[in-house]
């Protein structure tokens, strides 16, 4: 695994020997999670021959940036992800989890995106329990950062992870943008019409409290 720069974004990259696929794949995480939460997916894709990039989009978010965390909109996040893909300098496949899946679908019109995959994406127009609680509701109203889930919702989020990694995954969660959550729950996201974008694939289970 190598540390690389995709324009202004730090990223992790794995280039297996041999590389078996024509394009690299870019991973985008769920709300409250970071590139480290995608480590298992990262490792699996690399093990079967994908060149994999995981950009840290938060490097351009927060204090001293043009994107304050609480006010970062969904379209802002998609623009940052598109900028990171441009930094690769080649066509790529983009795969996102949760809100990252919606960003992947949004980027299907990006000139460098050959295909977009949404893994267990959040559902636009649906009030996901992932951002529940009175404190988070107030934070979303005021466009302030929202906090990761706790209790049963947190358990559901990490239930499928390896038991030996759960503590690290929980401790690695970070506050996220209330504006992104508002955009998703309001359904205020536009996607390209069929035939106007790269191929898109949605992968989701038949039972998911977040969807």
Describe this entry's structure for a reader.
- This protein has a single domain (2-203), classed as Alpha/Beta hydrolase fold, catalytic domain (Rossmann fold), CATH 3.40.50.1820.
- The strands form 2 sheets. Strands 1-2-4-3-5-6-9 form a 7-stranded mixed β-sheet.
- The chain is globular, with a radius of gyration of 16 Å.
- The protein contains 7 helices and 9 strands.
- The chain has helices at 39-47, 74-88, 99-106, 134-141, 151-158, 166-171, 178-185; strands spanning 2-6, 9-14, 25-28, 52-55, 92-97, 113-119, 145-146, 176-177, 200-203.
- With 211 residues, the protein is an alpha/beta fold.
- The longest helix has 15 residues, at 74-88.
- Helices cover 29% and strands 19% of the residues.
Would you give the CATH topology? Answer: Rossmann fold
| Helical/strand content category | alpha/beta
Q: How many individual helices?
A: 7
Broad CATH class: Alpha Beta
Helix and strand succession? EEEHEHEHEHEHHEHE
* Principal-axis shape: globular
- The proportion of residues forming helix, as a percent range, comes to 25-40%
- Radius of gyration (CA) equals 16 Å
Q: So, CATH architecture? A: 3-Layer(aba) Sandwich
In short:
This protein has 211 residues and is α/β, with parallel strands linked by helices. The protein contains seven helices and nine strands, in the order βββαβαβαβαβααβαβ.
């Amino acid at each position: 695994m190598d540390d690389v720069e995709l324009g202004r974004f730090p990223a992790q990259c794995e280039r297996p020997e041999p590389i078996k696929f024509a394009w690299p794949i870019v991973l985008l995480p769920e709300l409250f999670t970071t590139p480290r939460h995608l480590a298992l997916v990262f490792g699996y894709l690399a093990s079967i021959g994908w060149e994999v990039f995981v950009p840290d989009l938060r490097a351009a978010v927060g204090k001293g940036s043009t994107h304050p965390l609480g006010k970062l909109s969904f379209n802002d996040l998609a623009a940052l992800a598109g900028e990171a893909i441009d930094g690769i300098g080649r066509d790529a496949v983009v795969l996102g989890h949760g809100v990252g899946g919606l960003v992947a679908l949004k980027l299907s019109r990006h000139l460098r995106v050959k295909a977009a995959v949404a893994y267990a994406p959040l559902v636009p127009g649906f009030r996901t329990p992932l951002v529940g609680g009175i404190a988070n509701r107030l934070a979303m109203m005021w466009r302030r950062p929202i906090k990761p889930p706790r209790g049963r919702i947190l358990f559901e989020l990490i239930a499928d992870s390896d038991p030996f990694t759960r503590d690290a995954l929980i401790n690695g969660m970070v506050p996220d943008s209330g504006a992104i959550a508002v955009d998703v729950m309001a359904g205020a996201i536009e996607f390209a019409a069929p035939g106007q974008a790269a191929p898109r694939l949605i992968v989701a289970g038949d039972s998911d409290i977040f969807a």
